[in-house]
Amino acid sequence: MAARLGLGAVTFGFLSPVDARKWTQDYYATLASDCHPITYRVNPNVGFLSMFVCGNDERRVGQMAAAWGEFGYGFRHYYTDGVHRPGKTSVIEEGRRIAAQEPPPSPAALAELAAYACMGTPDHIRKVLLEYEAAGVDQVIFMHQMGRLQHEDICAGLELFGKSVLPEFIERDEKHTREKARQLEPVIERAMKQRVEPPAPPYDPDYAFRADGQHIRHFAHEPEPARK
C-alpha cells in the first residue's frame, strides 16, 4: 500500500534479513509498476526495526539483552491478548511477575533471535547490518529502551556502535544514495504523472484570521460575518 501511494514504509515488526529482502523487493517492484502518489513527492524508503544492545563483553551483553523479555510482554499485552484496566494494571509489574514464573528462553531460541538482532558485540552487529544492507533495506531503526536497561548502558552502547561500526556504513550510504536516486529517477517521474489529486476546496489567497480567534474571513464565495 505504501508503495502504491508513493510513501515510505516503516515496519513495526522484527524480520530477519531474508524476510526483509522479500518485503523490500516487493515494495520497489510495486513502486515501479503501480505507484499513484497522493503527496507532492515520492519518498522511496523502507525501514525495519531491530533490538539494539552493544558491548564488547559478550556475557554482559547477553544479560542486558534479557530486557527484551519485558518489552515483548508489553508488546503482547497491548497488541495481542492483554487485558488492561486503566489506573490499575501495571504492565511492568505484571511482565516481571510472569517472567519470574516462566522458564528462561532456551539457548536455541536466544541464538535464533540474536542471529538477526543488533544485540551483541560490534562485530556481530556489523555482520547483521551487512545482511540487511545486502537485502536492499534502506534504514534499520534501533529499539534500545527496553525493560531494565540503564540509560548509561544504552548511551555507552550507542557510543561504541557510533565509533566502531557506523562510519563504514555512512561512507557507503552516500554513494548508494546517489546511485539509488539515479536509478529511481525514471520510476518517480512516471509515478508523478499518475499523481492522485486529492479533492479539496479552492484556496482563497485573501483568507486570514485574527490571533484571538474573534474574527475569521471566510472564502471569497462566502459572505464575511458582520462586525459588532
Topology of this protein?
Blueprint: H1 2-5, E1 9-10, H2 17-33, E2 46-54, H3 58-65, H4 68-81, H5 91-101, H6 107-115, E3 118-120, H7 122-134, E4 139-143, H8 151-164, H9 166-192, E5 208-209, E6 216-217
Parallel strand pairs: 1-2, 2-3, 2-4
Antiparallel strand pairs: 5-6
Helix pairs in contact: 2-7, 4-5
Percent helix, as a range, is: 40-55%
Please state the overall shape, judged from the principal axes of the Cα atoms: globular
Beta strand count: 6
The biggest sheet, with number of strands, parallel, antiparallel or mixed sense and barrel status, is: 4 strands, parallel
- First-residue to last-residue Cα separation: 51 Å
Report on this structure.
It contains 9 helices and 6 strands; from the N terminus they run αβαβααααβαβααββ. The protein has helices spanning 2-5, 17-33, 58-65, 68-81, 91-101, 107-115, 122-134, 151-164, 166-192, and strands at residues 9-10, 46-54, 118-120, 139-143, 208-209, 216-217. It has a single domain (2-192), classed as Alpha-Beta Barrel (TIM Barrel), CATH 3.20.20. With 228 residues, it is α/β, with parallel strands linked by helices. The strands form 2 sheets. Strands 1, 2, 3 and 4 form a 4-stranded parallel β-sheet that branches. Strands 5-6 form a two-stranded antiparallel ribbon. Helix 2 runs parallel beside helix 7 (122-134) and helix 4 packs across helix 5.
Task: Briefly say what this structure is.
It is built from nine helices and six strands; from the N terminus they run H-E-H-E-H-H-H-H-E-H-E-H-H-E-E. The protein has helices at residues 2-5, 17-33, 58-65, 68-81, 91-101, 107-115, 122-134, 151-164, 166-192; strands spanning 9-10, 46-54, 118-120, 139-143, 208-209, 216-217. The model has no long low-confidence stretch (mean pLDDT 86).
